[in-house]
Amino acid sequence: MVEAAYYRRYKVHLPLSEADMFAQGQIASGKVYNQASVYQGANGGLQCSLGEGGWEDQDVAYILHHGILPLTNMSCYPYAKMATGYEKQVQQPVQDSMKVGAVTGFLQVSDQGNLTQKVKGAKARERMKILAAQIEGAAPDADQRRLEIKRSLKGFVQVTKSFYKGEKRNGFDSRFYDQLRAMSPAQCETAGAAQGKYIVSELNKGRPVLVGFALRDVKPWVGLDPSPDSPAKDTYGHAFLLTGYTSNTGHPVFKTYNSWAQGGKQINPPVLANQLCRVMQTDSLLTPEEAAKQKQS
Q: Are 239 and 264 in contact (CB under 8 A)?
């Protein structure tokens, strides 16, 4: 979405690094721990599920406020490789803390449930930054390049619309999920009419839309998640881009751009009109010129 807005203004294709967004926004910031949870594993022992991300508007806001590296400035890992390679290094302190059941200078965990204390102390935060840099393999001038991207995005306007009627927590409210799951396809399409109207309007203006989607039990997404053993399946939300649509039958079918991959191939299942009630939130990014024009209208 950010890349598309950048192109609309500068007519330059600038691939941005999802690995940098993850390393800086999640690992270096400590969110990978702060938003993690501890749960009973299949073997009976305690395991930790690290925080992958928050609401999609937070990620976009992070890029606008902190910048992000262009993909060409990454000297090492693509996102898929980094996302699998970082886990042992990042997760080990959590596992060690659970084994001794003690508070360390790094973090504190409960016996089961959410982490009870954020990454704390200057040394711990510095350790996170070093760890992120090591895993990410960013270029030496990374900070300067992030600043350049931040400056080039000055005046771009993020537009967030919420369609979520549950309680906003780290995940979606499971009670609201139950209401969605009880709807028939026709009921879901009716309930998602406002989402559909807004998304089609944005796509018609050439702007892709980032959506927060209540994913549980939705076909053909079910079973495609590369991490199917996630403990949070009962309240599973996911974010991805809607990039276009077809409407041959009068009911739009939305094209997606997703972060999942299997066997080296990206997984981009469509979103149907009768699934639109599951769109909890949308985010668009306007260029300064688009924002000014929209303000005038």
A: no
